[in-house]
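Exercise 7.
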Amino acid sequence: VQLQASGGGLVQAGGSTRLSCAASGHSYSFRRYTVAWFRQVSGKEREFIAAIRGNGGSTHYSDSVKGRFTISRDNAKNTMNLQMNSLKPEDTAVYYCAADANVILSSVSLSQAYGWWGQGTLVTVSS
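Solution. The predicted structure, written as tokens, is:
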């Protein structure tokens, strides 16, 4: 599976931006895949942000973004998105999309559960 992330850039605090991730080369129907967004700040571990489980499954968010970020997917277009509102300087990070067809419920927030990753896109929130 190849994942291509886009979006991001420089945003003012309180503003919004939208990240997208396009999938290709997947062996199974895209709808089967659990898709997720993670972020990473230099020197820190990759942090779970949000996920949507496959086959119409549940949506999950980290406490740090709940109520501000919204994850969505378009199975017909093989894409996933992350709408980011009310951005804070501490949201500054490189954001990664991820996907896997075999993520169990208890592992949706674990980076090691995902076998496919996008290249990362930088979001910088200025104060």
